[in-house]
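Quick one, tokens below:
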């Protein structure tokens, strides 16, 4: 089915590794124009080359630390300066290192989690709403990549709290800006293990290898509670993101949350 995203102006934050890379790939196959925003310049350039090979109409790499004030707004400005507007924002950038709540006393780490996972999404949303209201189409779509941790998961207390806040942010955006033709929805991925070494950069959480994040025993335990008995892939998440961003197939969908986890959670 034609999703109407050919030539669409799309910003993907955290677009260089794992889930973000998968999202960039799917928009590339739709022939979209993509701003790929990430902190990892080398990995971002590699994914940009992949996206061009997959059919992206244009790819602009925007290297920024989205935990810094003003960075997310500047990323939206990159799309504006190149193409005169923005049609789709994917708030995908995120950061986490798992720790049990009782042991997690590093306030600087908490701040980093809030800055990257929440503040960047707030700032990008504010800038995107303004751009979408003035982009000449009378519509726009924002998709937030949250997490199963938003519903409460072991070793993800502070991270999960930031992602639960993202869910509230998305639904508030949907309520406040539906009258401007802007839709806002949420995708909550299950555990997504990178599909290859090329799927992550040196600064990624997964750069140390799968076992540095989740070992086989932990994965087996998770799969026992997953009805479909299989892990989620970056492509699974990306396909849901792109579906939600398409006005052709999701014109009346806003403020909704989809768990892409094989049924691990059913919110």
């Amino acid at each position: 089915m034609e999703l109407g995203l050919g030539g669409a102006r799309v910003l993907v934050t955290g677009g260089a590794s794992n889930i973000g890379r998968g999202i960039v790939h799917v928009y590339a196959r739709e022939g979209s124009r993509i701003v790929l925003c990430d902190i990892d310049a080398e990995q971002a350039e590699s994914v940009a080359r992949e996206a061009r090979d997959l059919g992206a109409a244009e790819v602009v790499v925007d290297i920024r630390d989205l935990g810094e004030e003003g960075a997310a707004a500047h990323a939206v400005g990159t799309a504006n300066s190149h193409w005169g507007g923005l049609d789709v924002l994917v708030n995908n950038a995120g950061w986490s290192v798992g720790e049990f709540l009782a042991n997690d006393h590093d306030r600087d780490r908490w701040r980093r989690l809030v800055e990257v996972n929440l503040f960047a999404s707030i700032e990008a949303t504010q800038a995107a709403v303004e751009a979408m209201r003035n982009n000449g189409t009378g519509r726009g779509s924002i998709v937030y990549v949250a997490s199963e941790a938003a519903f409460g998961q072991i070793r993800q207390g502070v991270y999960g709290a930031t992602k639960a806040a993202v869910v509230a942010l998305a639904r508030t955006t949907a309520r406040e800006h539906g009258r401007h033709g802007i839709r806002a929805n949420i995708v909550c991925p299950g555990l997504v293990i990178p599909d290859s070494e090329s799927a992550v950069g040196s600064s990624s959480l997964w750069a140390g290898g799968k076992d540095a994040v989740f070992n086989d025993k932990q994965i087996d335990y998770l799969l026992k509670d997953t009805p479909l008995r299989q892990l989620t892939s970056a492509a699974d998440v990306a396909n849901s993101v792109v579906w939600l961003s398409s006005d052709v197939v999701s014109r009346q969908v806003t403020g909704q949350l989809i768990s892409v986890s094989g049924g691990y959670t059913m919110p």
